[in-house]
Task: inverse folding
C-alpha cells in the first residue's frame, strides 16, 4: 500500500535533512516523498536535488502560498492510497509508518485516520515530554472543544477521506490542521497509538512557526468558531463550558481579552456560577486598561 509523504518547506534547508532522513529510514518502504517548496529563498532546492533516492519528488511554488496550499499541492500530486504529513522541522521514529498501517488495516474501512503520541523536544533546554493521545472512534465534539489530535506530523490518513473532507482551507492563517480534523471527523473514525512515534520540536524563538504567532492563532480560533457555528450549537452544557474555559486561556495568551469576556458571560448564563461572572469582570477590567494604554500611552 503506497504512502504519499508530504513535506511542505519554506526556508527550512537547515532542518529539512533531519525530517527527510527520518522518512528514508522507515521500516516500511513503500512510499513516495513529495517535498513542496513554497518559494524558498535559501538553498532548499539544491539540498533536495542532492538526494538520489527515486522516491523523492520535488515540487516548487512560483510564489509563497502558505502551508495549507503547499499540502494541497502535495495531495493533488499524491499517488498513494494513504497520505502522511511531516513538517520540515519534525521527525519520525523508524517504525512509525508500519505501526500506523497495521492499526489502520485492523480497524477496517470506517477508520480513515491514525495518529500517534508525541515526543516534544524543547530546543532551548533539551528537555523532552511525552504528549499522550487517547481519543478513538468518532469524536467530533471533542475536536470542536480542542485540537486533541495535535500536529499533522503524527497523522496518516486515507486519501479518499482527505478528498471527501475537501483538503486544507488556505484561507486560514492558523488552525489549518484542527479545521481539517473537524471535517475528517464527519467522514470517518480515528484510531490512535499512544506511543511517541513522532518527534515534535518546540522552538519558541523561531519566527516562521505559526505556533509562535499568537495573533494568527487567535484569528484561526475565531475562524473555526464561525465556520462550525452550527456544530457548536450541538455541544452539551458541560462540553460548552470546557470549550469556553480552554479557548479563553488561548485568547488571553494571544492578547485578545474581549472574546474571553463574552465566553465567561456565556458560562455564567449556563451555570449561574458567580466565579465565571468574576472572571468576566476581571477580563473586562484588563480590556479597558489595555485600551487606555494604547490610546494614552501609559
Result:
Amino acid at each position: 500500500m503506497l504512502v504519499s509523504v508530504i513535506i511542505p518547506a519554506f526556508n527550512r534547508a537547515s532542518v529539512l535533512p533531519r525530517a527527510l532522513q527520518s522518512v528514508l529510514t522507515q521500516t516500511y518502504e513503500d512510499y513516495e516523498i513529495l517535498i513542496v517548496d513554497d518559494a524558498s529563498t535559501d538553498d532548499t532546492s539544491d539540498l533536495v536535488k542532492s538526494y538520489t533516492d527515486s522516491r523523492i519528488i520535488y515540487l516548487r511554488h512560483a510564489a509563497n502560498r502558505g502551508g495549507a496550499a503547499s499540502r494541497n499541492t502535495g495531495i493533488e500530486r499524491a499517488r498513494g492510497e494513504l497520505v502522511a504529513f511531516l513538517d520540515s522541522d519534525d521527525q519520525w521514529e523508524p517504525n512509525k509508518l508500519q505501526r500506523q498501517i497495521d492499526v489502520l488495516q485492523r480497524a477496517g474501512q470506517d477508520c480513515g485516520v491514525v495518529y500517534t503520541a508525541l515526543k516534544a523536544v524543547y530546543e532551548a533546554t533539551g528537555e523532552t515530554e511525552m504528549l499522550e493521545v487517547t481519543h478513538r472512534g468518532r469524536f467530533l465534539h471533542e475536536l470542536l472543544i480542542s485540537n486533541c489530535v495535535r500536529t499533522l506530523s503524527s497523522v496518516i490518513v486515507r486519501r479518499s477521506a482527505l478528498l471527501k473532507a475537501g483538503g486544507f482551507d488556505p484561507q486560514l492563517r492558523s488552525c489549518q490542521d484542527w479545521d481539517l480534523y473537524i471535517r475528517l471527523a464527519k467522514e470517518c473514525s480515528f484510531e490512535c497509538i499512544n506511543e511517541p512515534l513522532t518527534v515534535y520540536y518546540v522552538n519558541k524563538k523561531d519566527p516562521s512557526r505559526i505556533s509562535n504567532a499568537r495573533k494568527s492563532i487567535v484569528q484561526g480560533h475565531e475562524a473555526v468558531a464561525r465556520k462550525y457555528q452550527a456544530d457548536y450549537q450541538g455541544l452539551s452544557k458541560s462540553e460548552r463550558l470546557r470549550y469556553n474555559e480552554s479557548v479563553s486561556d488561548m485568547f488571553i495568551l494571544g492578547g485578545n481579552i474581549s472574546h474571553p469576556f463574552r465566553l465567561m458571560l456565556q458560562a455564567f448564563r449556563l451555570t449561574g456560577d458567580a466565579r465565571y461572572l468574576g472572571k468576566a469582570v476581571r477580563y473586562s477590567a484588563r480590556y479597558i486598561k489595555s485600551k487606555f494604554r494604547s490610546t494614552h500611552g501609559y
